[in-house]
Amino acid sequence: MTESTTPLNVLFLCTHNSARSILAEALLNAMGEGRFKAYSAGSSPRDNQQPNPLGLQVLQKAGISTEGLRSKSWDEFATPGAPHMDLIITVCDNAAGEVCPFWPGHPATAHWGYADPSEGDGSDEEKLEAFRKTLHAIQRRLSLLISLPDEKLHHAMLQSSARDLASH
């Protein structure tokens, strides 16, 4: 960002924070080149929820760090002292329809829906392929996001810029 070296904080939300939002967080942190800082959370992670091992495996095979990834509640980001978010993106339909906490600073929001790669009764190889496809779909949208010029990332424009990417 030209006027500041502060990265744009992006929070990816899903229901359990174990698959899609974790993939998006890791991808954007790897791709963002310091312009973005990604986080993820869930509206209702299960007790002792952990990132899906297949998601972690796909990230590692793609050469993307999984260090520090953990499932957590979105409540963590609505507390005093939490990082201020510039953009919040829901990546599953359930989270998109839920009543979100109050986010300080009124960040821009968008919904980028992806099917849950962990659902279904397929073989391990079929599930792994579902995670790979989801990773690539998220990566395509994030490539567009990070290539936006700085003026499209200013707070006033961020809402429409992020929502426009939902159709890609």
TrEMBL record:
It holds the Pfam family LMWPc. One of its GO terms (biological process) is response to arsenic-containing substance. InterPro entries: Ptyr_pPase (IPR023485), Ptyr_pPase_sf (IPR036196). Keywords: Arsenical resistance. Residues 8-148 form the Phosphotyrosine protein phosphatase I domain. This is Arsenate reductase. It comes from Acidovorax temperans.
